[in-house]
Amino acid sequence: MINYNQIITELLNKRGIVTDEEIEEFLSDKPQKTYDPSLLADAQAGVDFILAEIAAGSKICIYGDYDADGITSTALMLSVLRKLMPKEKLDYYIPSRFEEGYGLNKEAVKQIAGRGFQMIITVDCGSVSADEVEYAKSLGMKIVVTDHHNITDAMADCLLINPKRPGGVYPFKELSGCGVAFKTAQLIQKKAGLPKSVLSEVLDLVAIGTVGDIMPLLDENRTMVKFGLKMINTGHRYGLRKLIEGAGLSCGDITAENVGFVIVPHLNASGRIEDASQAVKLLLEPEGSEEANAIVQDLLLKNRERRRLQQQTFDNCTQNLTEIDDFLLLKLDDAHEGITGIVAGKIKDKYNRPTVLVTPSGDEKQYLKGTGRSIEGVNLYNLLKRHEECFEKFGGHAGACGFLMPAENLTKLREGLLADMVQIRQESPDIFEKKRPYDMDIEPEDATIELAEAIEKLAPFGNRNPKPVFRMCDVQISDVRYMGEDGQHVRFKASQGGGPGDGITCVLFGRAKDYTSLLEERRHADELAGTLDCQLWQGVKRLQLMVSWMDER
Q1: Is the pLDDT at 1 greater than 60, yes or no?
Q2: CA triplet 110, 113, 117: central angle to 5 degrees?
Q3: Which of these, 266, 245, 251, lies nearest to 204 by C-alpha position?
């Protein structure tokens, strides 16, 4: 049998965690890896500026974004500043995904100024809003930007706190927007003499923002998410606790996977279907709030509607897709634009092609709003950047991008992207071959409850720290049982030379029909890979392999 410590050590080594100190930190329940917030450029000056405006009695508006990172960033900054100023002098603004789009816009700035606010603090946006910042200053407003996005265009001329600033010395560049808001809050707490509990109370928000924005769960992010999950599981935030319960989960058992697949989609549903402001309000509601219960019920409904629209749009796209080009640029005339990013990701996964969906925008539908997702090996940002002349607005990163462009530019963009893909394919002929990733080979008898429990020490799992995938070779399949209304799920046993019922229980969700020949005809797989899962059922621990893929050579 394999030594479990050896497995854990080998897995960590493969992920770049090599020294005894690094391994101890990675596995610790109380990690210490964190950095001095004053190392962030403009952080000291920005916090001094904010505190001076509070002392002067200024009205301050927190300007956020409509996704989970922006929602939690906004709630975090409000929570901290409420300790220092009257509630009536502090408010927030979340732009509409549909009417305004991402980031600062002049109409919103004008409206905020018109309501008597003297300062705007951005969270999760603003780094390249150079024109909008100048407009705010022309109205006599003061502004501090906190953000984490790449700075690829003209940088806003104001106090700007962002670990990705050119020439910055902050040791960790991969903070979420909420992570940057938290580092700013650390300095506010210190300079204003607030109790440290002010910070620990908002770590739940940092965990949600970090996981929701798919930031790497390594280094300082790992520290904040570990402590943040503990805070979530105390149930101290009433609105969040009610959302968790409404979604069928319970505080005390929440994992990073629960955050990513349950909490974040429900918070995002507010901005995808209607208005993200209600999600911010939910996170700030006091204990016993009736309004919190009403918001939770509304978010549950909106998330169900989001899923319905998402499936409907995905089905329409795939049914009408007659030719699989190297780059899928699809025009949807009547899709709900709040779900196009998710659908682009699902289409990308299905066909293993970079995918962009565009929908009509503007009063005369003279524009197209695009959102895209990319595959490993194709930097979508760099690809679209080559055709920047097509766009009115454009931004994003390697894996996901968004833009606004005149509708007449669609053909030019499509032709340009397809030409780019010809070159990429010549340089990487196997670019579209689906990868079969796994971390390590093990025998079925080495897959035990003890190993599964040891693997959990590597959590929280997510970007750059996925749950380890184990491969088993040359396995016999028995006890095949289909599940679900359409038999789309399957449970079976996998063993090496054992009799029926021997081996490890395996579960495959959603793709049973893709493997009919292996399950029913061959009853044998040359390769079988998945993650180990240990569940407690009626007081008994049960082990199962959650199948990622299987194959015959």
Answers
A1: no
A2: 155
A3: 251
